[in-house]
Amino acid sequence: MRFIRLLQVGTLFGVLLLWWVVTTFAKIDPVILPGPGAVLRQLVDSNICRPAGKGSARMQCGVQGYFLWQHLLATVQRIAVGLGAGVILGVLLGWLLSMNSVVRAVVDPYLGFLRALPPLGYIGLLIVWFGIGDVSKVVLLFLATFPAVTVGTMTGFARVKADWVRAAETWGATRAQIFRRVQVPGALPEILTGIRIASGLAWSAIVAAEMNNGIPGIGGLAYISGTQLNTALTIGSIIVIGLTALAFDLFIQIFQRKASV
């Protein structure tokens, strides 16, 4: 385990070193690829207040009117609502579909259809229906995550061995006890895998969700800074998105390991 951690840290430093060498000695235009130092400066500047101009007494705080952590917090709140709704409804629907093969056969193609849709394909339609506020963003995140959780839950309950259920019935367990003690623990690994996939899909869709009126929002910041050719801030925002998504994924993995004990 220690060797793997050292390998991961060493790989990270190797990537950063290669990035620095390429941007320092290859004379690449910073608009195309800024160095790691420029990205770090942008991340620091986006969390402090500084004079709005030379000799100006007015202070400018953060970027686009907000600190970076405020952008990130706004995005996390949107993802929490969209992903949370996707998890709750996905688990309920997946459980119901696992109980009825006929309904599952009818609904499954539509779930596959939703899973295949790219967020940019229907964000315009959601804006027409729900406006450019947070509702359209949350709905997009819900649509991006809901099918994965549903399929994971449905698969999990379907894979619970019938022998386990019959054994519990032989011992006199009630239907509620069988559901709580046999079916839920048996399906939980697949459910959590579906939630992990859904979490990744939510973060991968956040820039599309925040393209319109996404400030404050880390995805909106990445998009706007890109249109303004502030590549260093774009890369910094992408790094923040990736690290936060990784933290979400690690949290789910920890829960998975505890649930499997």
TrEMBL record:
It comes from Corynebacterium suicordis DSM 45110. Keywords: Cell membrane, Membrane, Transmembrane, Transmembrane helix, Transport. The keyword Transmembrane helix applies. It is found in: Cell membrane. This is ABC transporter permease. Residues 72-252 form the ABC transmembrane type-1 domain. Pfam families: BPD_transp_1. It is a multi-pass membrane protein. Belongs to the binding-protein-dependent transport system permease family. InterPro entries: MetI-like, MetI-like_sf. It comes from the Bacteria. The chain crosses the membrane at residues 79-98, 110-132, 138-158, 229-252. Its main location: membrane.
